[in-house]
Amino acid sequence: MNSHASRPPVTKAAADYAAYAVLRVVIAVIQALPLSACEQAADMLGKLVGGLLGFRRRLVDENLTLALPEATPAQRRVVAQAMWRHLFLMVAEIAHAPRAVHRTTWRRHCRVRQMRETVATLLQDRPKVVISGHYSNFEFGGFMLGLFGFPSHTVARSLDNPYVDRFVNDFRGRTGQHMLPKHGSREAIETLLSSGGTLTLLGDQAAGDKACWVNFFGKPASTHKAVALFTLGYDAPTLVTATRRIGGPLQFEIELADQVDPLAEGFPYGSVPALTEWYTGQLERMILKAPEQYWWVHRRWKGTPPPRALKRLSQQASTQGQAAATETTAPQGTTADA
Questions:
Q1: How many structural domains does the chain have?
Q2: What is the domain range of residue 18?
Q3: pTM surpassing 0.85?
Q4: CB 57: neighbour CB atoms within 10 A?
């Protein structure tokens, strides 16, 4: 057997290392600059990429038109440009966080809403699932979770460049956030949850035509079934959280959108579609608080739902529309159930 068969071609390895070296130089420059300068650079780059160059302009505008149907074209352009600014600023924050944020300084950079409820759940000797989305600086949220003394494991696709992948995962692991590859981690996840560990997941990733389809901003979106199965299969308390920028660089608020417990009496989300609809709705609600911080640049709506899923979603949308109309027309001082 050829011992070199599994090694990448020399040219690819060299190109990967060259890209990694460039990244390290960029990170070193960012770390040498004050955050105020990084903020100014992010603002200029946001205007350049989101405005003058219009990178992925059509995709971003299509997504924003769907999510913010009442916004004018000018308002959507403002949101798109602000999104790019947040993305560039996120890179600078990741570079500065290990040096700036630690156990004696974290209150300068982060406030946690519903801290008592969140900590009470995370302290339980049971498996836990924490769901977030591509919103603001979610990497900082994972960083803070470990800093607070709650180590977690995150499932993510490995980057194509192995050097960059190792570098990024080193950052994530500084405070106890361990990475599991998207493929081949079944046994590791089973061991983690069976031992009462915490699994963190992104709940807004497209998952192909055979996934669980739910409405996201009113349009069918495929969603990984595994996210809900981890909760239901292990009776794991599940939290939906968001890390939202509330000021300048490294100024965040971590918010608990909602949480559920499959062992609670009357638990209403006992199926994969029901639970997926619940956490997707919570993510949608959090995104609308600061839509410019969501990653509208990624393709959330891909593929076509099968007829059965499309029928279910159409019926659900019709029912919700009727309920909303009933609430709107109900006489003052009454409810739809009166």
A1: 1
A2: 10-326
A3: yes
A4: 15
